Each structure stands twice: as structure tokens, then as C-alpha cells.
Amino acid sequence: MNASPEEDLPGPRTRLSLAFILAVSLMIVSGWNAVAGNAVWQTDHSAFEETPPFDPEGDIDDYTLFALKNNPGLNAAFYSWKAELARASEVSWLPDPVLTFGYFIESIETRVGPQVYRIGIRQSFPWFGTLGAKKEVALESAGASWQSFMSERSRIVLGVRSAYIDYYVAGIRKEIIKEEMALLEGYESVVMAGYKSGRLAYGDLIRVQVELAGLEERVASLGDRKDTAGARLGAVLGLPDSTDFPVPDGLPEFDPVPEWEELKNNVIENNPGLRAVEHLVGRDLAAERVARKSYWPDMTIGFDYIETDEAVDPMMIDSGKDPWGVNLSISLPVWFGRSSAMVRRASASAEMNRYRKRDKENKIIAAARTAFNSWRENARKEVLFRNGLVPRTEQLLEAAYSAYEAGNADFIDVIVSQRQLLDYRLKLIDAAATKAKKIAELEYLSGSDGPGDGIIRR
């Protein structure tokens, strides 16, 4: 005897078990995806665990690369971007489905039998385009966070270069003053011999000794300045305060500075601070689209299954048949005032950030213009001191000393020439260092990424 079609179907308990297993499986898969994403996150995090060894004998590019890998503030900015980026994936998912279960304490008697319990599942769907707009909001926020990370990166590069240059200047100024002290000590021995022989006045000996005492105090002050610059350099590198750095052989080399119009356009195009505000404007515009979606209803689709026992009359047709059905519900967005307020807030925020961008652009262009003019001024000074004043003053000092030895000049002329030569040599170093620092500042305003990335980014 052939079995009826109803006998081939799974029983009520089996159907209940299958529905339950399906719901649990959905939750397990969702949980597994979360665990897998967390594993990827942890694996990525380990990339910052190893710190490269620091080589004090390296050049400024080595120092900069070490700072970029080791600076904790930069790592914090990087993971702030990672968190914002992860949020873009988070908001693009549908809401979690809802599993419902209801047990009839007093069974509802139907023609085919009493109903025992109800089990169902619901899935909500926001209005068309809402998830995409929310994802765009998160992506624009992540873009702003990335530009903040790039701004922090450029700031660290500027900090390394500024401290490196100051450390070099303190060291080289100290060496220059020591050279002048050695020259004065030679003069002192000559004046001492002339004084003992009665040929030279005692006042000349005193002048030399007074100049030497003044230079000794300047050497001590420069030692303090060198220590201060070294502490700044160690701080931006993330090294202990006791780290000892050798005095660099010279100032770092930079790419040529372009003409002002080209430089200004590059600053406007590549400055990460401006790029960050642009992303904030994009975020607010996307948030306005999300707010406008709130005028439309959300939909929920559901499936229900009802377990039914056998009817009292076992001969009843469809006795114990379990009903099932699908349902659709929509929300009623009747509070239009709330939606309008959300739209107005997002629109006002976008307008605020547009004005912020304009204000920030004006300030950055003014800072770039100031740095550009300072660079140009100090470039002229460097040429003047290097090719004109320093060599001519050296000749003047030699002539004054020769005239003094011949008895045709006073020793005060030698001292004045020596002071002037020292002043011009120090001003030459200051002009060259200021020029280098202004180029570093222009690279910072242009969003330089570090070594190998100059003022103009292609």
C-alpha cells in the first residue's frame, strides 16, 4: 500500500527543529563573521609591535622613518582611522532578524485542532538607499580621519626636521665660537709676549681676555641649547631623554622651492587639513540624505508557523494541519518635525564645514606665503654672507692684524674685525638653517608624506 503525500512530510516536531536550527545557524554565521573580522584586526595590529632599531649615525631620512614607525601619537591616529573605516562596514548591514516564539497557555480551538504554539522570524528593511547613504556617511568620516592621520604624519616629519636642524645649529655654532676662541688665544699669546717685552699695552691683553671670557659663556649657553634641541629630537623619535645624538655633518637637502603660484596651488590641493574638512562636508551631505530617508517607511517581512494538535474528531479533514504564513508591516513616519530637524541639522553642519574650509584655506595660504617669503629672504642672506660679507671680513681681519703687528693700528681694530667676522659666520648659519626650516614648513603645508616626498606632490 502506497503512503499518502502527507505521510512523506516531516512531523510537527521535526519541522519545529528545522526552523530552530535555521535561526540558530543564521546567528552562528553572523557571530563567525564578527570573530573572523576581529581576528583580521588583531593580525593587523601586530604590524606595529616591532620597533626598528635606532641608529644615531643615520641621516635625517633615517631619523624620520624611525619616528614614523615609532611615534605613539601617529599609531593612535592610524587606529582611529581603522575604527572609522570598520564603522562603514558596520552600518551597511541590515538589522538583526528577530526570532519570535509564543506558547498558548489556553489553546485556541480550531476546526482542525487546538493551536499549541507559534514560532516566527522577522527581518526589517530600511527604505531604499538608506543603508548606502549611511555607509557613505561612515566612509566620509573615515576619509576625514585618514587625512587627520596624514596631517599628524606630516607634523611629525616637520618636528623631526625642525629639531634636527636646531640640533645641528647649536652644535655648529659652538664649533664656530671655539674656532674664534682658538684664534683669540693665539692673539693672547702674541699680546702677552709683546706686553712682557714692553712693546704692547696692558689694555690690549685685557681686551683679549675679556673677549675670551664672553665667548666661553656663549659656548656654555650653546651647550644648553644643544641639549634642549636633543631632548626635542628624542621626544619626537620616542627615545629616552638620555639619548646622545652626534652633531650632523650639515643641513638636510631639500627639493627646490617652486614659484609662488605653483606652490600655492599645491598647498590648496594637497594640504591634509583642507582635505579633512572636505570629507566632513561630504559626510554632512550624506547625513542629510539619510535624514531625508526618514520621511519614508521601513518595511518588515515575517514568516510564522503554528503548531496544531490533532482535532477531537480524528476523521476531520486536515486534522492537525499546521498553518503557516508570511506577513508584511511598514512603519508610519508621522513625526515629520523630527525628520525636518534632522535634515536642517545636517544641512547646517555641511554649511558650517564649508565656511571652516574657506577659513582654513585662507589661514594656510597666509602661513605658506609667510614661510615662502621667509625662505626667500634667508636664501638671499645666505648668499650675501657666504659669498660677500664673510670672506671680505676675513680679509679685513687679516689686514687689521697685520697693521697692528706693524704698529699702524690699535688692537681694538683687530677685536672689532674679529667680532664682526664671528657675527657674520653665525648669521650665515642662522640664515641657512632658517631657510631649511622654512622649506620643511612648506613641505608640511603641502602634505609631505616624509622622505622622498618633496614640496610638489605629483
Describe the structure.
- The protein is α+β, with helices and mostly antiparallel strands and 458 residues long.
- It has a single domain, classed as Outer membrane efflux proteins (OEP).
- The chain is 68% helix and 9% strand.
- The protein contains 10 helices and 4 strands.
- It has helices spanning 5-8, 12-45, 60-70, 72-91, 130-196, 202-237, 260-270, 272-293, 336-405, 411-445; strands at 98-110, 113-125, 299-308, 324-330.
- A 4-stranded antiparallel beta sheet has the order 1-2-3-4, with helices on one face.
- Helix 3 (60-70) packs across helix 5.
- Mean pLDDT is 81; it is low at 1-10 and 12-49.
Highlighted features:
single chain, 9% strand, 4-stranded antiparallel sheet, Outer membrane efflux proteins (OEP), 68% helix, alpha+beta, rod-shaped, 4 strands, 458 residues, disordered N terminus
The helix/strand order is: HHHHEEHHHHEEHH
Q: How many separate domains?
A: 1
**Uncertain residue segments:** 1-10, 12-49
Main sheet attributes: strand count, strand direction, barrel closure? 4 strands, antiparallel
What's the number of extended β-strand segments?
A: 4
Helix tally? 10
Strand line-up of the largest beta sheet: 1-2-3-4
- The secondary structure category is alpha+beta
Could you name the CATH topology? Answer: Outer membrane efflux proteins (OEP)
**CATH homologous superfamily identity:** Outer membrane efflux proteins (OEP)
